[in-house]
């Protein structure tokens, strides 16, 4: 698994081409690194420097390289996306300060406990384990039903994003989960083809329906799991758009993934208000 991750980073950064890792992507750390050197693909210095740059880009420690090598997706996921309540509160307060044009001195006053309870949404004052649980559920579903050949990249948070193609669903109840897949017309076929077990020539309405059905399977199974814990969640019908901008009053989390060589994004938002502004005009 290490070879898959580091190999993808090398390709993305034009250090090697795709042919350089054919047949060796399943090697672990440091075997993959040694193979690149032995085959003359990278010099010793170039390989070592690339490894350091790879670790820096994804904020990885040496121990994390062995976690990736092990291939346990449940241990890999937190390296690239993990919700920490303290970090989420700081992020929200920075956005609150900017939105309300407040000085640092103004914010210090608002950091008193009674002020924070008034400012912060209830979900930020609760355990963020729910968000990590849903992310794990979604990524595991991709591995199980779409492809084990998946590479995660570091998540980024934003409040507005434009996507060429986007399919999503909302789950409402004890929590509000917004979940979808975004990419271009080629990359989303990685989901559509595998789930439908047929090859689509383009992202037409049938291909989008396949992606939506997969999303519905993920959300539905999650809601079902929670129901056994007496947590009620209602799943809304999935939808798809092209040339769409999505906005949220809280953070949108975009997790880049590479599935069988196709790069797309898994999009999450939790307990926020998301506005989808686009055209539901997939090719007929």
Describe this structure in words.
The chain has helices spanning 2-12, 31-38, 44-57, 62-70, 73-80, 85-99, 104-110, 113-119, 129-145, 189-196, 205-227, and strands at residues 150-152, 156-173, 176-183, 233-235, 239-259, 262-270, 274-279. It has 284 residues and is of the alpha+beta class. It has 3 domains: 2-71; 85-125, no CATH class; 129-279, Chemotaxis protein chec (3-Layer(aba) Sandwich). Strands 1, 2, 3, 4, 5, 6 and 7 form a 7-stranded antiparallel β-sheet that branches. Strand 5 and strand 6 (262-270) form a beta hairpin. Helix 10 packs across helix 11 (205-227). The longest helix has 23 residues, at 205-227. It starts with a helix and ends in a 5-residue tail after the last strand. The relative contact order is 0.12. The model has no long low-confidence stretch (mean pLDDT 90).
Core attributes:
284 residues; single chain; alpha+beta; 3 domains; seven-stranded antiparallel sheet; 11 helices; Chemotaxis protein chec
């Amino acid at each position: 698994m290490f070879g898959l991750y580091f190999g993808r980073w090398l390709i993305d950064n034009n250090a090697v081409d795709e042919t350089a890792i054919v047949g060796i992507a399943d090697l672990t750390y440091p075997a993959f690194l040694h193979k690149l050197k032995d085959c003359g693909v990278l010099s010793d210095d170039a390989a070592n420097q690339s490894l350091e740059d790879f670790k820096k880009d994804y904020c990885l420690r040496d121990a994390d390289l062995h976690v990736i090598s092990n291939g346990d997706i449940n241990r890999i996921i937190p390296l690239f996306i993990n919700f920490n309540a303290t970090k989420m509160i700081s992020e929200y307060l920075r956005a609150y300060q900017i939105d309300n044009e407040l000085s640092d001195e103004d914010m210090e006053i608002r950091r008193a406990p009674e002020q924070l309870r008034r400012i912060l949404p209830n979900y930020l004052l609760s355990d963020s384990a729910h968000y990590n649980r849903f992310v794990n559920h979604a990524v595991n579903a991709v591995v199980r039903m779409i492809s084990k050949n998946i590479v995660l990249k570091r998540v980024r948070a934003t409040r507005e994003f434009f996507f060429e193609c986007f399919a999503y669903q909302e789950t409402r109840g004890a929590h509000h989960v917004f979940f979808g897949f975004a990419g271009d017309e080629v990359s989303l076929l990685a989901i559509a083809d595998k789930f439908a077990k047929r090859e689509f020539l383009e992202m037409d309405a049938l291909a989008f329906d396949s992606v939506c059905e997969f999303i519905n399977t993920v959300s539905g199974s999650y809601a079902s799991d929670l129901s056994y814990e007496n947590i009620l969640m209602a799943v809304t019908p999935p939808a798809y758009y092209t040339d769409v901008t999505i906005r949220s009053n809280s953070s949108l989390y975009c997790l880049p993934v590479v599935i069988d060589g196709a790069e797309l994004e898994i999009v999450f938002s939790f307990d926020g208000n998301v506005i989808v502004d686009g055209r539901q005009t997939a090719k007929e």
